[in-house]
Amino acid sequence: xxxxxxxxxxxxxxxxxxxxxxxxxxxxxxxGGWENxxxxxxxxxxxxxxxxxxxxxxxDEDKHGRIFHALIKKRGLRPVEVPxxxxxxxxxxxxxxxxxxxxxxxxxxxxxxxVVTYLAHSRxxxxxxxxxxxxxxxxxxxxxxxxxxxRMISQDEDNHLAYCHEELLRFAHAGHGRTxxxxxxxxxxxxxxxxxxxxxxVMSHMGRILGWSKARSATLAAGIHAVYAYERLAGWRRMxxxxxPERRGALDGPPATAPEFA
Length: 262
Hints:
Elements lengths: L3 H10 L1 H28 L8 H24 L13 H7 L6 H5 L6 H29 L6 H64 L3 H20 L29
Helix pairs in contact: 2-3, 2-7, 3-7, 6-7, 7-8
């Protein structure tokens, strides 16, 4: 029977698919770490109080990248080059979502609208990350090899999502509500397309590694397209809602250190 658990288990049990999975995840986390670090350094003077939280966000992402690399190393493997069609963060940038890297590489302070754009982009992508890690936590929280990593990363992603809600609501109350809702909608509709394309690409690469039949690959592709159809119709709305989180100040304080996976 084809299920999320059996699919992930098959990927995790094979060294080649496992290291591709972890390499893709590590690359995306490292990219997110760099982006947040640059944004923290360029926050406009009137919003410098945000800088430590953005820096914490970036440090968490860097930590996640190190965790995925450690999981690869623990198996005696080496990371692999990430196929361009699976590079979620770079594909989002090419679709104009978030702040362009040209702006982040410059040494000019960002504007408040830039910060709102960053937070809206993060709110959408962290929704996806939180849901993905929740799924892994549901099935693999007690796994002796990856359980501890899954629990830590999942908690961090939940904190990131809570922080985005709290800060966007603060900006909405300051008069940026219409801009926030417009940006959230644009980001969400673009993200679900990129997520569909990346999911298809990842499953294609995994299928070649694991020797899936054409019928199984077609079934998985149909499922990905069905998820996209639902998200395009109504599911994207969950990515644009804002509500004050139960945990306030989720990114206050320093990040937790990455555990050892020797």
